[in-house]
Amino acid sequence: MKIQILGTGCPKCHKLAEEAETAAKELGLSYELVKVTDINEIMGFGVMLTPALAVDGNVKFAGKVPGIEEIKKHLK
Fold first, then answer.
1. Which residues are designated catalytic?
2. Where do the domains of the chain lie?
3. Do the beta carbons of residue 47 and residue 1 sit within 8 Å?
4. What is the pLDDT of residues 17-42, one digit of tens each?
5. I need a labelling partner for 20 at 20 to 30 A (CA). Which of 7, 33, 44, 75 fits?
6. What is the pTM of this model?
7. Listed residue (24, 36, 71) closest to 46, CA to CA
């Protein structure tokens, strides 16, 4: 599984990366965490608000940092 954090590196982006990694570890998933910071690449996902989370290239949410339990729902 490829978990992508879309954002320019702001504090919320770092928080989302931490929470996504925690959620994946708690679920026992095999994953790769990738931070996408290039604005053109982020826009290529159709994302206008950051931070955003994509799983295997599919955007699950944007513009917020959800809790770990909500992230787990999108990783299952």
1. 10, 13
2. 2-75
3. no
4. 999 999 999 999 999 999 999 999 99
5. 44
6. 0.93
7. 36
